[in-house]
Amino acid sequence: MDIVIQGRNVEVSDSLRGTVEDKLSRLVRFLDGMERAEVRFLEERNPRIADKEVCEVTMHGHGHVVRASAAAGDSFAAVDRVVDKLEHRIEKLKGKLAGRSHPRRHGSVDSFNVRVDAVGDAEEDEGQPRIVRTKQFAIKPMTPEEASLQMELLSHDFFLFTNADTSAAAVVYRRKDGQIGLIDGT
After folding, report:
1. Under 8 Å CB-to-CB from 93, ≥6 apart: which residues?
2. Confidence (pTM)
3. Which domain-ending residue is among 101, 127, 153?
């Protein structure tokens, strides 16, 4: 696994570098094929924050991106916390990938095990999210500006369309800061 370690306004010592490389290389045992990891250390400047040392890790592989961030009193504890989070997320990803390849074992999207109790409420045995509604609509080519207008008119948080400029599927979405974002397929 290729590991890139950066420090933003923080000096990354050799012992910290060695610890990060050791712990992240152990994560490969959970899911083979994780090709690259980007580790970033930073320090919170707010004096009210007790856990000032922050470690952010982004792992790439299998066409997926797994990201985790953790804060602690020192950098080594932050690494331990972020590795715990990554283990959990990678195991969850591995379970989903296995569920896709073995539909008889885990059930498919259309055939979840649903139990109906005495009052008639349906509950899932699996505890997994499921698709509860499917919509179909015609997608016409339009510019991102037109799609943004349609999104506003429908009062939705996102809008799927075919980009007239690139002829690829695209999505406009409302960002947390109130601006509009564009995801354009290639």
Report:
1. 31, 62, 64, 66
2. 0.57
3. 101
